Amino acid sequence: MAKEKIMVVDDEEDVTFLLSSLLEFHDFSVKTHNDSKGVMADLEGGVYKLIVTDYMMPGLDGLHLCEHIRASQKTKAMKIVMLTAKELTSQEHQKLLELDVTIVQKPYQPNELVARIREIMQR
Amino acid sequence: MKLKSYFIETGFALAFIVALYFFLPEFKLHSYYFWIIVLLISSRYGLMAGVLSGVVCALVFSILLYLSIDKKALETFWDMKYLLEPFLFIFVGGFLGQLSQEKINKISETETQAQLFTQRVSTIETEFSTSEEARRELEKRIVGQLTTITTLYESAKKLESFKLSEIYFGTLDILSEHLGIEKCSIYILENRLLTLKARSEFGKLSEGEDKTLSKTEGLVGIAVETQKVVSIRDALSSLEFSKLKGGPLMAGPLLRKDGSLIGVITIEQIPFVRFTPYTIKIFSIILDWLSLSIENATYVQAVQSRNIQDEILGIYTYGYGKQRLKEEFLRSKKYSLPLSLLILRLKDFDQIDSKKLIPLFKSLYLILKNNLRDIDLISQYESKDSLAVILPTLQGAELQKIKLKVIQDIDSYAFRPYEASDKLLESEILEASFKPAMQSETDLIQDLGAAPA
Questions:
Q1: Could you read off the pLDDT of A54-92 as tens digits, one per residue?
Q2: Which of B236, B239, B234, B192 lies closest to B213, judged by CA?
Q3: Contact A111 B412 (CB under 8 A)
Q4: Which among A8, A12, A16, A18 is the top mutation candidate for probing chain B, defined by the most B β-carbons within 10 Å of its own β-carbon?
């Protein structure tokens, strides 16, 4: 059975490695990016079912990345999981909900994150 | 041959009849004696024989008839009744001979054709046998070359290793398999003495015993001094036989690029037919090859020993970890500071999928790192299935807290690294903490006790 493809975006290499390793050990196919450059092009050209992105990143942050994803015809239906260590303002929270983004607060339990991703994938 | 045969046979038969006629008074002349001769000879030997036997029989019969009839009746001899039978001998002999001749010709023709066929078959058989032999030889050579290349490639791969023992064995393999050398040894220069590192006896490889050679004596001495392969034949011109007796038959130096001595290969036994200039040439090439491999391996080992971090995982090396543990232990001992050592050991290590090994170790390293302080050090451990963590200034409850958190985090990742099994990763964490009574870091390591993860 073909593995489902997930993209992981985080500016910290250790985090992307751990996250991709976690997902790969749970039978997902993972592609990582350590900044938002090239993410959109990759998403539009690929067959990703879900993207896991950090909120705070240099350059294009997670919120703006989500806006770009929803604005593109090719990626607008993609499922998005946002990881954040930041206390989100109600406006940010509202905006993310409008963009149909699943928010996961850091620190998270890896197995819980995997369970959440599986649940989102099945929707 | 046939002419002679029918001539002789006719002659004999007629001579017999004539003899009977003259020496046996009761013998009565009858034409059928002659008919027998004419019929047999013509049917057996063909036209010429038939005509000849007919003519001869007609003559003899006529003569005998002439002699046998009453002189009074001689006038009647020329009657048709006396002339008819001789004429019939010739006619029947010719006619039957002709019929027989056709048959003989056909048989002869068939025999010629059969002979030609036999010759052709024989030629084809010879050609086939030659081609078959050529094919077998060609196949043998192709298989031989393929085997040689395959085994040479297999042996050569060992020389690409950075492990010296593998390089030594690879070289001895090549010498034994490709040059047919029965006994040979590799000596490496250590503390001014050539120390035996590996030897091959009839293809059986073994590690070196505690045996040394002088680099200045005998055949080895000449090889080291002249920096080239020396055989017992060359050495006999400059050394007495008694000094070479019992020593190797051939020796070649292993040299670095700068010409300094690495070691020596000695050949103690080689089949006489292999003791050729070709073998010496190939032996020289193998010496160069081995010298380069040893130099590269030694260089890599030196660089690796200077590296403090594993290039792939980013974890500190075991050598560096050991050194740091020693330093931290001395500090703890001197200033009575707490110090702890944790060993994270993976269970069923040999069942872990090799493709998952690096991601697993790196993930474990990052999990550990996320739970440790900046002053803590994660390194490789003596056995490949473990990681070591040195925690200076920490022991007791704080240590237990960290240990518990690490265990929980590892569990929460639910790693399934085992090959052919969906089993979760099983690990354990061994711990030891500094005690004033301990004399060295070895005591700390020996104090490691198992704690279930």
A1: 988 887 888 899 999 999 888 888 999 999 988 889 998
A2: B192
A3: yes
A4: A18
Q: Do residue B328 and residue B437 come from a single domain? A: yes
In a domain, B33, yes or no: yes
Give DSSP secondary structure letters for B219-264: HHHHHHHHTS-EEHHHHTTTS-HHHHTTS-SEEEEEE-TTS-EEEE
The boundaries of the domain holding residue B239 are 164-304
User: Cβ B369–A14 below 8 Å, yes or no?
Assistant: yes
ipTM of the complex: 0.87
The C-alpha of A28 sits at a distance from chain B's nearest C-alpha, in angstroms, of 13
The predicted-structure confidence for B41-100, as pLDDT tens digits, reads as follows 999 888 989 999 999 999 998 888 888 876 666 666 666 667 888 899 999 999 999 999
CATH classification at residue B230: 3.30.450.40
Instruction: Collapse the DSSP code of B160 into the 3-class scheme (helix H, G, I; strand E, B; otherwise coil) and give the result.
Output: coil
Q: Chain A within 8 Å of B417 (Cβ-Cβ)?
A: yes
Instruction: Give the chain A residue nearest B370 (alpha carbons).
Output: A14
Identify whether residues B177 and B83 lie together within a single domain: no
Contact A17 B416 (CB under 8 A): no
CA B158 to chain centre: 19
Task: Check CB contact of B366 with chain A, cutoff 8 Å.
Answer: yes
pTM of the full structure: 0.53
